[in-house]
Design a protein that fits this description.
This protein starts with a helix and ends with a strand. It has helices at 5-18, 45-56, 80-92, 120-131, 151-164, 191-202; strands at residues 27-32, 35-42, 63-66, 69-70, 102-107, 110-117, 138-141, 144-145, 173-178, 181-188, 209-212, 215-216. It folds into 3 domains: 5-70, Histidine-containing Protein, Chain: A, CATH 3.30.1340.30; 74-145, Histidine-containing Protein, Chain: A, CATH 3.30.1340; 151-216, Histidine-containing Protein, Chain: A (2-Layer Sandwich). The longest helix has 14 residues, at 5-18. The protein has 217 residues and is α/β, with parallel strands linked by helices. Strands 1, 2, 3 and 4 form a 4-stranded mixed beta sheet that branches. Strands 5, 6, 7 and 8 form a 4-stranded mixed beta sheet that branches. Strands 9, 10, 11 and 12 form a 4-stranded mixed beta sheet that branches. α6 (191-202) links the parallel β10 and β11 (209-212). It is 35% helix and 28% strand. The chain is flat and about 50 Å long.
């Protein structure tokens, strides 16, 4: 059964209240035709990220317009040098990240990651390692992925991954690989399921781009 915008807004508010890393009182929620707009001010980029993730977990959410702004309290202020040093240490201490291939740039609290890795999970792990650091206002992930396998091999690996995933109905998702680009199409029940399909596609080695055309019903 399709949810009304009122029901969807209530579900988002309930999920934000349920999420321990989010102060729901700081965040405004508006819904129009299944598109959720988040507004307000939070004390950290980590909380902003968590609010976005919590909203996308809700069944019926078609898209999220994230307009939350980060206002760091005085105790959380850090110099760019301090943030850069903390980010470099976080990457170096993470076993999943080839830190020697990643460059950290910090400007006014905004971290930009550059360099190259072999797989998407390494790119995502690098971002996760720095986005929760104190003083961070935002993260731009410009890390590139080096292609390593054929399109047919990519397609086969993704299809196998979709079939193994208990959260997905693999028969309702189609995979097409052209070079290092993967296109997904089909129908799923929620944003979370759509996101799981994307994660499965990005997990294949050599994938540089995923176009997710999966529709939520």
């Amino acid at each position: 059964m399709k949810k009304s915008d009122v029901d969807l807004r209530n579900d988002v508010l309930a999920e934000l209240k349920w999420e321990p890393s989010v102060n729901e009182a700081e965040i405004g929620v508006a819904v129009k035709a299944g598109v959720v707009t988040l507004t307000g001010y939070v004390d950290s980029f980590s909380e902003k990220w968590a609010a976005d993730r919590a909203t996308k977990r809700i069944s019926g959410v078609k898209a999220v317009a994230e307009e939350i702004q980060v206002r760091l309290p005085g105790v959380s202020e850090r110099t760019d040098v301090d943030i850069a040093r903390a980010a470099e240490n976080a990457l170096a201490w993470n076993v999943w990240v080839p830190s020697d291939r990643i460059k950290v740039i910090v400007e006014r609290g905004w971290i930009t990651l550059e360099g190259d890795v072999d797989r998407q999970y390494q790119r995502e792990t690098a971002e996760d390692a720095v986005l929760h650091l104190t003083g961070v206002r935002g993260v731009s992930n410009d890390i590139k992925i080096k292609p390593a396998v054929s399109a047919s091999d990519v397609k086969a690996k993704i299809e196998a991954a979709l079939e193994r995933n208990a959260a997905l109905d693999a028969e309702r998702i189609n995979v097409r690989a052209t070079g290092s680009k993967v296109t997904l199409s089909g129908i799923v029940r929620s944003w979370a399921e759509r996101d799981e399909a994307s994660k499965a596609a990005w997990s294949a080695p050599g994938v540089l781009e995923v176009q997710n055309n999966v529709v939520i019903l």
